[in-house]
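User: Need the bound-state model for nicotinamide-adenine-dinucleotide:
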Amino acid sequence: MSLEQLGQQDKDILIDGVWSGAEERAEVRHPYEGAVVGSVPLVGADRVTEAIEAADAAVDASSLSAYDRYELLTAAADRVEDRLEEIAQIVTSEEGKPITEARNEVDRTAQTLRLSAEEAKRQFGEYVPMDPQKGMARDHCFTQREPLGVVAAITPFNFPIMLMAHKVGPALAAGNAVVGKPATDTPLSSIALFECLDEAAAEVGAPDGLINVVTGSGSTVGDVFLDHDAVEAISFTGSTAVGKYLADNSGMKEITLELGGNDPTIVWHDTDLESAAEQVVGGACSNGGQVCNSVERVLVEESIEDEFIEEVVDAAADITVGNPHNEDTDLGAMVTDDEFESTVELFEETLEQGARVEYGGNYGGDLGDRVFEPTVLSDVTPDMPAATEEVFGPVIPVIPVDSFEEAIEEANNTNYGLEAGLFTQDIDRAKQAADRIDAGGVNINTVSGFRTDHMPYGGFKDSGKGKEGIKYATKHFSREKLVGFHPG
Ligand code: NAD
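Assistant: Bound-state model below.
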């Protein structure tokens, strides 16, 4: 499907079963081509309040059984799969990632909905025997799981459809109503997900208002979510600054925060350097490096530094940069001028402080306005900007370390703690890293950026709070009630 066939994507918002626009609209631009590819309404606080109240009424009115919720989520997954190519082209058009990555994202979205559908059937409580307590042999208790009510889902630009599914799938599986708020730069594919969910909801007879999506300024929408008592949970993926603001102001609401990262990957001598280098480059360049758990810092054992850099340069040279709609493109354009400029700034500052370009280093100009080449840096010290900051671009700073102790210290030398990677064949070293790296996930023999949709996923320190992953998020979006039976 070509861009022309896709056509202009002017999407609306969904409140209480009705799709509608607004007087003010925000344009969505193609990151590589610069053209306007669509638009979405920019709504004010009143429409967000309307969506929350519709959702609140729908939870009360909903009599969907677990099986109905399974059917709803399965029907939505079917629709996402039927529209896979169309939605993937939308993802590439609004976000700039290569079409092959966009297809993978849409496929994972459908799988996330299927996993959520299965989880809807597993919302069990437990029998709690009372006889361990003296004189209570005739009493019985059990627990049951109930939905929280209204779950608000706020997502960032970089995986515009999948990250919304990570929240909405589990929230619906647990029996909640949802109000989604996608990123304003990349809202189109997320709204396509809500179109699929809306049709599926009608098919199973869900009440209007169970599924809503609004678009608008993050702070306007976010403040209404924070202030409205009917919002029982906020699930946020995005920057640490906004996450902290939400955490500070969310009072008694449940909150999940999936935030930034500055993930280390350690490469030790006892590993296949060619394979490690390929994975490092893949992990740093996927989605143009605009990934929370991408390879941000490579800590390499000093004795193999030169050999490893050669392998990384070879692997980086295999990356094809260009129009993200081309089938052979590995690296497209960065989402906005701001993201592009921030990468340029951190890269140039790091060079000024003495780092050396081993490969790449070109950006903009003939490559395309927001295109940044895969870039391998050596002579990087841990205090340089490319090492201390989350660089949301394809920059690979290689930092030598002369002992494993130093590698662990450097891995932890950050306020973030999302994920980490370690390449080694030594099981003791692997276990040490697992025990001592202060991050939500430690991946042995692969890079930091490992995530599947069902595994528990979430960072420590400034990288977040709470876990995603279908089972874990579904549990988080429900509450446990104790029911007691007594002899009377
Ligand atoms: P961002 O924080 O700027 O925006 C994220 C979302 O929050 C958007 O929808 C935005 O409109 C909204 N928002 C902005 N201000 C708000 C406010 N005051 N209240 C409520 N919502 C508000 O993030 P971004 O630039 O879109 O995304 C990049 C960041 O997201 C990076 O730091 C990246 O590491 C992080 N991220 C984390 C994960 C993870 O799973 N840990 C995944 C993807 C991205």
